[in-house]
What does this fold into?
Amino acid sequence: MIMLEKEIWGNSILNWGISILIIVGAFIIAKLVSFFLKKVMGSFIKKTSNRLDDIIYDSIRSPVLFAIMLIGIWIAIHRLVYPDGFVHAVDNAYKILIILNITWLAARLVSNLLEEYWVKKNHTQRMLPVVKRTLLVVVWIIGLVMALSNVGVNIGALLGTLGIGGIAFALAAQDTVKNILGAFTLLTDKPFNIGDTVKIDNFEGTIIDIGARSTKMLDYDKRIISFPNYKVADAYVINITVEPKRRVVMKINLAYNTTYEMMNAAMNILKEIPSKVQYVSPNDLVINFSDFTDSALVITFIYFIDKEGDIGKTTSDVNMEVLRTFNQAKLKFVHPIQIHFEGKNDSDEKVSS
It folds into this structure.
């Protein structure tokens, strides 16, 4: 017993041991509460048809457990003897931690409510990331201001000090503001969704994120490309995913010794392509003997690949079929065959050579 009464830093070993046991007890209580919330409350809440109780349960669970640990540590610390300055610092730290814990709960609640009800109300997830991040920033700023005010920081003086550098900050942050406005432009105009394959300027790939500052694309080399939002808002964007069909223009150059009958045969061969190659639309073919050039007779062959078809494979199948059937018919190619792709919208009527 004499050993337990020995003092370390102004407190007996017995008092240190009791405080440690209180912290351990708080940890055990937190674990028991977590088990109760998960096994009893969680199971009960999942059986209800209302989603609001699930959201509240998920939002408060972690902050409640953290609050139990804070209470246990606070009791353990305050039963010991410390210098007044240390006690004051601990009290201020706890005031900040309590406010931040409440802010954390509020941020989780806002986040979960948005994820649950935003899509139902607006039928889209496209604006959710930006709105969510903006609201969370506002919640945390309010929480930090309240925490600092609670420990005696003069918020008015602090804001005045920050105001001195406000102009410089505004100038430095103008690109950030443009990017945020660009994000809202993208999310309201809806040129593409996350998961769409698009072409932005000379870059092509799949959109994986629309953030407050940038839009991220995963290109075909599996590299992530980040575009500032204001530049995407001003760029020419081709949404490949939403096109109903892919338009392919093919220039076939035949030798000048091609006869009238052979030219007819070539055009008839091209008319049969949709029946031999899957995903080539049979209703949109355009086949013209379009040009007499200096060294070739030119057939312009325009066809459309259905949305379900793989563009690369279908194009390869068409090229192989043209090569096979033209060789069979003894039709001689000259110069490279030119092929280029275009998206087809519902309003497309004209064919450009």
